[in-house]
Structure formats: C-alpha cells, structure tokens
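Subject: sequence -> structure tokens, single chain

Hey, anyone have a minute? Need the predicted structure for the following. Not urgent.
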Amino acid sequence: VGYTLDVEGRPVRVRRTPPDTIVDFLLTPLRGSRALRTWARAVLLRRLRIPIEEPLAVVEIPAGRVRRDGYLLQKAGDTLPLTDAWRSWTADQREALLRELGGILRRLRCARLSHRRLDPDAWGVRNRRIILLDIDGLRCHPRLSPGLDARWRRHLRRLRNGLVREAGVPRETVEQCLAWQAVVAQGVAGNSDNGRQGRAEDVRPPGD
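Reply:
Had a minute. Here:
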C-alpha cells in the first residue's frame, strides 16, 4: 500500500487517503477532511497501543474547488503481507501470529472500534509482529451505538474466510487462535484490564 521515499536517510511510507467527496466538503467544518480524519485515526491507534506504522505527518493538496488529495506519511520498515508471512513460517510461529492478531482484535472491540475492510490485506508483519496497515477503514462507535456486535461478527467472518481462502488456514485453527467468541464477548465485559485500555471515545486526537 502506497510507496516509499528516502527522506534524509530515513524510509518514509506515503499513503494516499481517499479523496474528499462533495459531502465530505460540506461536512469538513464539523469533522475535518478525509486526510485529517485518517491522521486522527492513526494518532488514536497509537494512543490505544494498536501496532501500526508510526504516523509522521499528513499533507493536503487542493485538487479543484471541492476535492482535495491527501497523503499520510508514516515511518516505513520491512513489512510483509500477512499471507506471505504465513506461508513462510512454522506451525508454532503461525499459531503465535494468529493469537497476537486475536489480542489486537479484542483491544479494537473493547475500544468500540470496527473496521470496514477487515481482511488479510489490511494486515502486515514486521519483525515477527503483526501490524495494522489499512487504518482508513477504521470506525469509532458511540457507547449506545446499536449493532456493533453484529458488525464485528461480519468482520470476523470476512477475516476468517480470507485467511482460509488466501493462506490456506484451516477454519477451526482461525477460530480457536483468534479466540473467536471472546472478541464479540469483549463488548459485554466492557473495558479490559480494569479500565486501563479505555475506549476510542475517551481518547481525543490533537485538535479535537
């Protein structure tokens, strides 16, 4: 996703954010442009200790009267797609990878976050640790927002089916290692770790 530049000897990943639509333009005074919302999501994930490529800056470029192009700059590294790492690892490494992924999913659910494109392409592996690559699909849900558990079940089915189809992971292995039921049950239990994890609605990115 994106491309890599060398900036003063440091590799920087440049990811283009989705362009503003007319609706985005009209709502910009209330919620900011898409580029700024992508930056806010990156900052939010860092504060919640969800592993991602470190955000460095966001750039907006006017592209007409309404549309603006946006670019998110992140600290780059040697990252493998999740499915590639899966094929090259041992059985024990694969199991540890899936269990780590399950822990990240539970933290996202506990923070009342969901992801519209939660499939294998959204994840990568760096230094034998899993990271979330696609942060633009992230959505925050208010405390009383209905249907979050149903949405998470759909997300998990999509991720499971993608791992089965693209990486050849047995379905039972995915469900067991991801602690399938525990991800959704996290919503019933509330905050984990005696409240230390927090919710996305309690974390405000700079400028909010």
